[in-house]
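Teaching assistant here, posting this on the class forum so everyone can see the example we discussed in section. The complex has two components, and the goal was to see what a joint structure prediction looks like when all of them are supplied at once.
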Amino acid sequence: MKCLAFDASPLVHFARAGQLNVLETLTAACRRVVPGSVLDEIAKGVGQHPELTAVPQQGWLEVVSVGGLEGLGAFAAYARLLGSGARNVGEAETLAWAETNEAIAVVDEAAGRTAGGDVASRFMERCG
Amino acid sequence: MEAVGQRVAAARAAQGLTQTQVAERAGLERSALAKIERGQRQLSAVELARLAGALSRPLDWFVRESPPAVVSRRGEATGAGAQAQIDLLIDQAARDVELLLELGLLRTSEWPRRRLPPSLSSAAEEARRVREQLDVGDEPLDDLLAVAERLGLHGFSHIVDADGFDGAYVALEGAGVAVVNGVHPSGRRRFALAHELGHHLFADAYATDWAVWDGAAESERVLNAFAANLLLPRGIVRNRWERLGDEDDIRSAAIALGIEYRLSWSALCAQLRNCGVIDQGQLSRLLATPPRRAEYLELGRFPVQELEPPAVSPAYAKAVLKGYRSARLGGFRTVELLRGTVTLEDLPDLRLLPIESLYSEFGSPL
């Protein structure tokens, strides 16, 4: 089964539009995961956009985190390309988790897609 | 995980912080930090990022080894205080240049490695050869960061709160990296960079320089002679002095030469003395009274500021922006790599993909 690892932006856009159920339907054929750091990042936006509280309540989204030296190494390698500030940690962990778990990272920043290489660009090539 | 824990402990010790202080900054329990340092507890990505922030280190410092020259240096370093701050700055600059080399954004350079000249006069001769290689004739070396890059040395200017620190150098595979202390005036910063260029060309692996001008060690004096002659060759000084008429004022000529070749007053006066165009008494009088603003007004020329901190070298900056444009570097990372010389708002927009292009990927029922 294909596995999708979500960064914050796609979830935020669907949540703000009140359409997380559409995202669930679109991706129903896949395992769907979100790193804990991405949920932390989204939680910070709840004050400004209360509709984001729906994100952690989605039962179909499995919460994951990178572990071990391999996972942290991959995480640091992505942070090296994307930055290690509060807003980059989620994206870097999404890509690192996808890389170490043979998943597809769903990220929206252009550099994240390039950094993802096999993890993300394979996915983007097919999307044109 | 043990290695990561050891690096956390080392970074904490280098900053003289307790476990309680670091744990508080990183939002962790002190006992959790103690276990992390002993390698008895797994770290999450978020915790690693928070610890990196709390310890003011780049994230990859904890999981990726520093460049070899930095590692071999670490054994000799005192590990605390200003020297630790400088070691970290040069480590960071080296990592950033290495990243751009790895991504193919910067090209490795070949520069002729030379033996340290055995005497002050042979240092002047080496400086002449380097000028010849650069094909700059008798011209002043304006924009020294760009000049150094032509010889494979990438320079950075940072404010370093350490009295007397002038610059540091580290050699990488295919490039050299120098950091100069931006707190000093422009002439001293340029002299420091020229001195570091000497370390680079004469095949040193790692150097940190304090009060370069007062350098007592013979090798440092040789590098100072190299730097002075690179910035202002003897031939130029002598030609200029030969053309001075009896009526001409030595002081005005010196000030004009200093502005043109962008030397600090003390470096300029010393070079005039080394070239034998002024005697010891004239040197003392000149040194006692640095140029005043009115004298610049009279000449109608003012010193140009270079290496204003924060500064990065031009090819390096171009490489970072190429990485951003080609989406190999994120926006935040681009700003970090450029040391805050630009903000996120200064970066150009990148092309975005329409959301419709994602439908087919999920086997969409739409």
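For the discussion questions: Chain B has a mean pLDDT of 89. Chain B touches chain A at residues 1, 3-4, 42-46, 48-49, 52-53, 58-60, 62-64, 99, 324, 326-333, 335-336, 350-353, 357-366 (CB under 8 Å). Think about how each of these relates to the inputs above.
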